[in-house]
Amino acid sequence: MDKSLSPQSDDQPSWKYIFVCGLPRSGTSILGRNIARMENCTGFRNTGGFEDEGRFLQDVYPSEDVCGGPGRFGFDPRAHLTEASPLLTPENAAKLRAGWHAYWDNSKTIFVEKTPANLLMTRFLQAAFPNSYFVVIKRHPIPVGMAAQKWKKRVRSLYNMFEHWLHCHKLYDEDKRYLNHVYELSYEDYVGNQAEHHEKIAAFIGTRVPEPPKEDRFRTVAQWRNPSGLRVPERTMEEATGSHDRKYFDQWYRLLTNSPFKNYYRYIARKYEPSFAKYGYSLVNGFGPTGELVRRGETLDAVIGPLYCHGADASALVQRVGIRCKKYAKRQIHKMGLHRRFVPLWLFRANKTK
Hints:
By secondary structure, the protein is α/β, with parallel strands linked by helices. It contains 12 helices and 7 strands. The radius of gyration is 22 Å and the shape is globular.
């Protein structure tokens, strides 16, 4: 990697910066890696941070973890940055460029950075990186919300995940009026038309999709839930799949029909259906004969609905406290050196899976 070139964008007017944006679990990782495989493009690799995201390579702005993590960071004002942010100084912009160029291949001229919270930082990044391009991907709120709930330490109720999805996309919709270069797509369309979207994105950023290599090498990308990491090809485009969506849609159907708390799930389906419909998504249609079931009970929503949500919040709080207490107990036991003699192995195995 040639790191001798100056990271100052003013010295390199031909350089382009591609920021891949979208909520966690929206497909940003695979999309970002595929764009970085295009001709004359470079992305981060071997950084040691999860998914090689740029947020781990800087200390200019607070990351989404500092702002509450998945399902919550968008509600923190610190996560929504624009050109008016006091953090946007010439010194900080130069610091960001220098930090990220240390991990890009500077023999290329198109630099790709993927971090989910970019969705709320587009105007800030455009001001800090002249000649910026934004590729924004959205995904159905059910898989986004349910998949993000796997972060048990920060688990939030599903209605809060829906609120967060809507809040973040509303902020982005307001911000995109100020952006010069934006390409938008949905994960669902990407799964069904990857080659088409790759060609369009390549034209959008001024490059080409390379021919598939006859032979390829592989590297490992660090992942928070996978200690061994994800093995990905260096040059071959990765294939996105809709199988995970089907799993979450089936789970949502079961929650609406068979869960002991089905009235809560039917309530939030009624409550958020009109809002998600504006984005082309539905919490009711396409999930079997659930329409009539969901519509029942709407006359009591004003009274019972908030109680359902308070109960869901209480349940999520209990889960968070339980997980954190177990982790704290495990640290103390290790600190005292008692784990080898007195603590059953199942406690540690259970914690390792969280």
